[in-house]
What does this fold into?
Amino acid sequence: MFNYTFHWNQALKALPQMLDGALVTLQITLLSMIIGLVCAIALTLFRLSGNRMLGGFAAAWVEIARNTPALFQIYMAHFGLGNFGIHLTPFAALLVGIAFNNAGYLAENFRGALKAIPDTQTRAGRSLGMTSMQAFRLIVLPQMLRVAFLPATNQMVWSVLMTSLGVTVGMNTDLAGVTQELNARSFRTFEFFALAAVIYYLIAKVLTLAARALAWRMFRY
It folds into this structure.
C-alpha cells in the first residue's frame, strides 16, 4: 500500500530558493511588527484619551482584528479595497493584513500591561512636574513595554506563520509561495512542504530564543 518514493535531493537542490523566500518572510514579519507596534501604541492612547470617538475606533479595530480570521483580513486588504479603487500588490496586501492583525492583538496586550502598572506611577511623575504625556512616555511606556515584551514575541512568531497565507492572494516570493511554485513544477509535495515546515520551525525558534536573550539583557534589573 505504501509505495511512495521520496526524492529529497530535489528539495535540497531548491533549498537556496526557499531560503531566499524565507528572507522575504522575515522582511514581511519585521515590517508588519513595526507597523503593528506603532498602531497598537496609538490605539492604546486612543483608549486612554477619554474621547468616545477615538476610543470607539480603537475598540472596533481590536474587536475586528481579534475576532475575525487573519485570512479574512488579508482578503479584505487585497480584494476588498480593490472595490474602492485601492489596488494593493500581494506583498502590500499581506503586509497590511498582518499589520492590522498585529495592531489589534498588541493593543490588547498593552492594555493588559497598563493595568499591571499602579496609577501611583503616573501620579508620582506628575508630582515631579511632568505633564501627562511626559509621565506616560518616560514612566508608564517603558514599564508597559517590559510587561508586554514576551507576549509581543508570541505575536511575532504568529506573524511569521501568518505570512504563509499570502499564497491565497498570489504572493509567490515568500517561503510559502516559493514552496508552492516548486511543488507545482515537481509534484514532490511532501518533500518541499516538509522542508518548508522545518524552515518555519527554525525561524520561530530563533526568534523566540533571541527575544528571551534580549529580554534578559534589557529587563534583568
About this structure: The chain has a mean pLDDT of 88.
